[in-house]
Amino acid sequence: MLFLGLDLSTQQLKGIVVDSNLNQVEIANVEFEVDFPDYNTRKGVYTNGDEVQAPVKMWLEAIDLLLLRLIEKGTFSISDIKGISGACQQHGSVFWNNDATNTLKNMTAKYSLKEQLEKCFAWDMSPNWQDHSTQEECDAFEKSVGGPDQLAAITGSKAHHRFTGPQILRVKRVHPQIFSNVERVSLVSSFLASIFSGKIVNIDESDACGMNLWDIEKKELNASILTLFDDPDKIASLIGDINQDGKSPVASISPYFVSKYGFCSDCSIVPFTGDNPGTILSLPLKPNDVIVSLGTSTTALVVTNNYVPSPLYHLFVHPTNPHAFMGMLCYCNGSLAREKIRDEINGKDHSKDWTKFNLALDRYIQENKTLINSSHMVGFYFPLSEIIPNVHACQIRLQWDSIMGNEIVSTKFNEVEEDVNGILESQALSIRHRLAPMLTEKSPRRVYFVGGASQNQSICKAFSRVLVPSEGSFVVQDMKDACALGAAAKAIFGVLNNPSEHWEAFIEKRMPDNKFLNVDNPQADLFGEDAVNLFVKSETYSFGI
Ligand code: ADP
Ligand code: XUL
User: Closest Cα to atom 8, ligand 1: which residue?
Assistant: First the structure.
């Protein structure tokens, strides 16, 4: 038996095929900017001021192309795939019109997905998680329940620009014509699951926690918030029921995929979830273990059994363990901000090579061995508006005076090498500071690095020496595909459906310790509480927070 895990992220659609022990059999991807130049997206999206959107039709083309690529490899038989699940960019929404249900049901292998489904959307765009255009809606969301603390207590997060509830409310305000034609709203995860199911499937509960609409403790859409949409019943029906069972299959695969690609007709579609919930499914996490995901965005994820909501971070229902939660920090300026500094250091040589960046970073760490104190340099590198803290695009460098650390003596760094180190230190210090309330120990137990940049040992080392995990840091080979792997694990868990096996035992068996590589932790003792205080002081000085 084989299983397929899909990851529909900002820049690409990935598919990983695994056996029932989670061993990789094959992998393929479609990169939107490269494979679909006609759409003219930049890194998978269109950016227009604060608005960031992705074309839904491009994703339809990507599904057909990905399956062709997987099959062309000729390394496995597609009819052996017994289950499919997915983990997709969070918060994005897809607006179906009233042609969708019928067309999904009657898709034929004669035409492509795009040819058949392109007329099924009230809007052919999907708001992306990098969108910042919903301040007015966020204010309304928080006001409707009494403020950010209350909204965080109910939904697990204060209002965020990218969260789906404020985004849908903005579509209603800015595009009333479009909104009047909407029959159902999917998240990106339930959209992709719907294509494979040949019918619109319900939104997964864990991913629904990224909407600012779901009352996590009462397990229902919050009535006060729904009144913001004028007709609460209508919006509730557009969203549909929220699926609280992350395990049981929701459908057998649509006949389209059976006749076009040779899937077996009893291949099950196991609920798809968000990419961050998907990522935690790729590892055997214990309490106080942290995943740092170094993808396009940077996220830090932790599993906790306590519902301890705060406006400082996000809490989501765990995607496979209904009694647990996932804590999350999410930063917009992750890889793209690091790439900007890499490009500066590469100068005229426009390669995407990280060698010079890594050499500069390793050298800086090697040569700077003093305890981080109040006079250290701090930089903030936000080429895009940032989520944490909520500020507009900016680049700030600060050096505090060396005696008291009370005054700024310079706002320049001498060398680009200092930026190379500066961006990693400040990204890591922000995570360390903000993760602390979710941990029951002073520091994380283990840190696992995943996502695109986890292939880069120098970057992982630089993060690790700031986060100071008590039992070390690890990368897992091929874990740049953690999210797709987590989705594949979910597919296995759903299809095998062994009632006596809990999620934790299931994944521990498939992810034993010998799969992890230790990351060096150079001079971790340099980063004490002073370093955190310096970071907090610099943020307060720069952003008034
Ligand atoms: P996504 O978040 O879109 O799924 P990935 O997890 O694949 O994307 O991460 C893509 C990012 O990983 C790229 O923007 C790139 O900057 C970064 N990346 C890939 N390889 C390296 C490397 N060797 N060193 C640093 N960053 C890397
Ligand atoms: C999470 C978030 C991002 C996207 C990336 O809240 O906005 O991590 O899920 O795809």
Answer: 295
Indicate if ligand 2 lies below 6 Å from the C-beta of 10: yes
Which residue among 296, 475, 479 has the greatest number of ligand 1 atoms within 8 angstroms of its CB, and so is best to mutate? 296
218-231 as b/e: b if 16+ CB within 10 A: eeebbebbbebbee
DSSP per position, 247-275: SS--EEPPHHHHHHH---TT-EE---EEH
Distances (CA, A) of 336 to 66, 96, 400, 472: 25, 32, 27, 27
How much distance in Å is there from the Cα of 129 to the middle of ligand 2? 6
Ligand 2 pocket member 131 (CB < 6 A): no
Q: pLDDT for 419-457, tens place per residue?
A: 999 999 999 999 999 999 888 888 899 999 988 899 999
Strands 473-476 and 447-450, by their bridges, are parallel
* pTM score of the predicted model: 0.88
| Residue 229 CB partners (closer than 8 Å, separation 6+) | 168, 169, 172, 235
Residues of the chain falling short of pLDDT 50: none
- Is residue 159 within 8 A of residue 167, CB to CB? The reply is no
State how far the Cα of 33 lies from the Cα of 14, in Å rounded to an integer.
14
Our answer on whether the CB atom of 189 is closer than 6 Å to any ligand 2 atom is: no
Amino acid type, 404: M
Q: Are strands 93-96 and 121-123 parallel, antiparallel or unpaired?
A: antiparallel
Among 335, 338, 477, name the best residue to mutate to test ligand 1's pocket (greatest count of ligand atoms within 8 A of Cβ).
335
